[in-house]
Design brief:
6-stranded mixed β-sheet, Rossmann fold, 9 helices, 2 domains, single chain, alpha/beta, 259 residues
Amino acid sequence: MNDRQGAAITIRNVTRRFGEFVALHDVSMDILPGSIAVIIGGSGAGKTTLLKLLIGLDRPSSGHILLDGEDATTMNDAQLNTLRKKLGMVFQYSALLDSMSVLDNVAFPLREHRRDLKEKQVVDLVREKLNILGLTGAEYKLPSELSGGMRKRAALARALMLEPKALFFDEPTSGLDPLSARLVDRLIVETRDKFGVTSVVISHDMVGALAIADEIHLLSQGQLVLSGPPGELGRGKHPLVRAFLEASGIGLSNGAGQV
């Protein structure tokens, strides 16, 4: 692992209500700097709600979320916008702009937030990230010309352009075949190792979670059921853990996987 340059994320007693409906109830967890945390759960577990809170697109009804000691729940909109520059987001289906080349997609954050850079500097920085992520020569391709794995890499390059301290992945293996899914898992680990970012992965993929996570946090019906390292959860006897493992075709004695 890198020298833990990423952000520590602290979630304390977070509740999110929508009228009478409680989407999250009293959730607390700690995510260490430079680690990979996988937040897993089925449909309606509260994963998406928690992700929106973590990236500042929504605010909790109560509780606190801290990034590197900064309490996002007490910030005004301008302060939140500044904080978001420390965060990178890789969307579920990459969310590349179809009409723009890979270079222009990846350059988008720099052109929006680093107006001090000259165009040559922007292009050089984009090419540097693309080279690191194995996309040399793909600068002028359109997203439609890329494989699913290449689109994920381009989306990751874009998320890294502002040198974030934390990266958030929304269901990164959704819709991929098993081989491609494991390649994406490996990419998440390699990115953490190369860039030292803290990585938070929202997922329902227990195979991937066991393979890449330093810590797994299991949500069910808006509550944090349990947290722990993969090997510990892989041997767990909690009925929801057993159900996820059995549905994924993983034997309870196997423990954590390998990327």
